[in-house]
Amino acid sequence: MTQSAQTTAAPQVPAATQPILSVRDLRVYFEIRAAEGWLTKSQTLRAVDGVTFDLFPGETLGVVGESGCGKSTMARAVLGLVPVTSGEVIFDGKNLAQLDSSAMRAERQHLQIIFQDPLASLDPRMTVGQIIGEPLRSFFPRMSASERQAKVAEMMGHVGLLPEQINRYPHEFSGGQAQRIGIARALILRPEVVICDEPVSALDVSIKAQILNLLSDLQARFGLSLLFIAHDLASVRHASRRVMVLYLGKVMELAPWQEIYRTPLHPYTQALIAAIPPADPRRARSNPAKPLAGELPSPIAPPSGCVFRTRCPYAIDRCAAEVPALRHVGESLVACHLAEQSQESRPKPSPTNS
Amino acid sequence: MPTDPAPSLLEVRNVTVEFATHEGTVRAVTEVDFNLAAGETLAIVGESGSGKSQMLLSLLGLTARNGRISGSARFKGEELVGASAKRLNQIRGAEIGFVFQDPMTSLNPYLTIAQQITEPLTVHRRVDQAAAREQAIEMLQAVHITEPERRMRQYPHQLSGGMRQRVAIAMALICRPSLLIADEPTTALDVTVQAQVLALLREIRQQFGTAVILVTHDLGVIAEVADRVNVMYAGRIVETGPVDEIFYNCRHPYTQALERSIPQLDVSRLDRLVAIAGSPPSLLHVPPGCAFHPRCPYRFDPCDKKVPPLEIVAEGHSKACFYEGALDHQPQAETGMTEIA
Question: Mutate which of B279, B296, B340 to test chain A, going by most A C-beta atoms within 10 A?
């Protein structure tokens, strides 16, 4: 119920299988110099603060949280793109957090990332064929140009691009097509784990659905394990069976989708769901989207105890004194002192105002 | 078309916006007609390139230099198309407030909140500094900014994203305009902050009676705040009607497709989303006839030859589509692989 619970959070859904990726107590701290009157002072920004989870082969784990929750930093830390302060990232028996840069580079063949802004993540001076083929060029320098070309053309087919587009440049593509190029580049090395960092947030509604469907097709075809990061629960819902909710660098709740949606245990998860506008005018009139009171605290000076307590309608004295451990409650993992109590027996929500 | 007895605050007739580019003339907005009543919230929904933002910017003389607007737009009876730059300057900020997707579009990073929020009052209303300050603090309270006196001394970078957007809204409302134009005001915000801004938009209508034109691509946002909806595709209005009609009785295949492609939270079922095949057209190459026909599951003979006119289907509800049957097609299983190049 204390420290150890944070680090021994056991696998849940596919009980028998071994995780393909295990993250244990991952911390990413940045030293920043902040102005304080006339002086500048070194301070620690806790972007990711003790995140633990498992990713199982062939599954999609959704990661949800709002700006500043550390979701993108966490993704980059898993891939060694930002330095890890402490903790483990176990892939294929190796702790990626301790590899040197050349060993980490070699591992990236197996772990790839798809970025949010498709056009910004493609080099405007390279053709589509060069962009998609570049990982092959760098990992298999002796592969012949014709073989590389053939692999690129095949992958373009898988992501729904036409072979004759191979010599075009990124600016000639719409946002949705550019995201297909980004996906093809991430998959060309046949990685096992793909991190999708808000892959549909920048896309139009009609295109969003196409790309979500494409990702699930490709996952089935290549047996990919996906870490699917999003800021909204609805997109994650269509991609993931399990969802992890982050707030201020910490895991608040990690549970199968049905639990997250039907019986969210953490007050922050409840707030995230209550804030979604329902796309149904009658329901919106009777039950409008509910704002979350207050502002996100600074990750330089996070609140004591539970980091969510400053905005939590149920907060009690214990929440300021003691960090709630992430622990099993039913099928969920929850970090809330009141998680075991039913909704009715919780302390009355205090009237909140921003 | 005007079916409500309330006098129109804004009457837009046959507005077309064109841009001369080196690749040819791009028509961003084509023959758009609509009315806005005082105090009403009208949502304009459409995807990238549907002309939803350009139409509003050009009405207020904010088009790029290569842009040209024709048609008529009467605001409180006064013609905006062809009005002098000086007159449009007087209207913008005083009579019509603007809020953009990124609050930093309207906020100046070098000025304190106090300096920028009081400026419209001193410019348009010739209010003295002390009175302007007082009104600014009141308006910040109205948009739920805590400790307004302290915030007034701060710079935009010291505020969170949600607070900046609320300050931008306060600034747009400070002269008590009768119309607020909000262009994707919540798109860049987190969902809990979005809910704050939506609640605020509802309060503004109640408290100040401000009419709102809300440009968005998010149907959830529309369901929360809109009275009426214009659906735009490739520069034209393809369907318009009261919000309930648009959600529960939509008559245009594009509107239906948009509604079906929203990721839903409470689906018990299939994980597959119903996607619309293809992408929105480039305005340089708008398909002939109905611009939506290449993506439409209901298309038939006339669709690629004639542009369907906007016709009334029910009170206050019009659509531009030749298909008269029920929209009951189960869209074909879309594989995500069928994008048209």
Answer: B279
pLDDT averaged over chain B? 87
A186 lies in a domain?
no
Please list every residue in chain B whose beta carbon sits closer than 8 Å to the beta carbon of residue A298: none
Residues in Cβ contact with A185 at an 8 Å cutoff, skipping those fewer than 6 apart: A131, A132, A134, A135
Inter-chain touch A289–B194, beta carbons under 8 Å: yes
Closest by Cα among B96, B89, B133, B142 to B115: B133
Q: How many domains does chain A have?
A: 1
Rounded CA separation B235/A223 (Å) = 42
CATH number at residue A226: 3.40.50.300
Q: Provide the pLDDT for residue A11.
A: 42
pLDDT tens-digit map of B137-171: 999 998 888 889 999 999 999 888 888 999 999 99
Interface size A-B, in CB pairs within 8 Å, comes to 171
Strands A21-36 and A39-55: what pairing? antiparallel
Q: Give dist(CA B53, CA B45) in Å, integer.
A: 10
The pLDDT value recorded for residue A56 is 95
Residue whose token pair is 């737009």: B73
**Structure-block tokens of residue B220:** 């959830």
Distance from CA of B193 to the nearest CA of A (A): 6
Exposed/middle/buried for B315, CB within 10 Å: 0-12, 13-18, 19+? exposed
Do the Cβ atoms of A14 and A331 come closer than 8 Å?
Answer: no
Note the pLDDT of residue B187.
83
Interface of A with B in 111-150 (CB under 8 A): none
CB proximity list for B200: less than 8 A, separation 6 or greater = B143, B144, B166, B169
Helix pair B191-208, A267-274: axis angle to 10 deg: 50
**Amino acid occupying residue A312:** C
Mind telling me how many Å the CA of A74 is from chain B's nearest CA?
A: 19
Domain that holds residue A321: 3-110+191-278+288-334
Residue among B223, B261, B274 minimizing CB distance to A281:
B223
pLDDT at B241 over 50: yes
Please give the structure tokens belonging to residue B191. Answer: 């969902």
Question: Which pLDDT score, from 0 to 100, does residue B271 have?
Answer: 58
Predicted confidence band of residue A241 (pLDDT cuts 50, 70, 90) = confident
Task: Indicate whether A214 belongs to any domain.
Answer: yes
Q: What is the pLDDT of residue B267?
A: 56
Cβ distance of B192 and A277 shorter than 8 Å: no
Strands B236-242 and B317-319 turn out to be antiparallel
With a cut of 0.90, is the ipTM above it?
A: no
Query: Considering the entire predicted model, what is its pTM?
Result: 0.86
- In-domain check, residue A272: yes
**Do strands A21-36 and A86-91 pair parallel, antiparallel, or not at all (unpaired)?**
antiparallel
From A24-28, A165-169, B213-217, B329-333, the region with the lowest mean pLDDT: B329-333
Partner-chain contact B193 A177, CB within 8 Å: no
- The DSSP annotation for A186-199 comes to HHTT--SEEEEEST
Choose the closest CB to A281 out of B161, B244, B267. B244
- Domain assignment present for residue A125? The answer is no
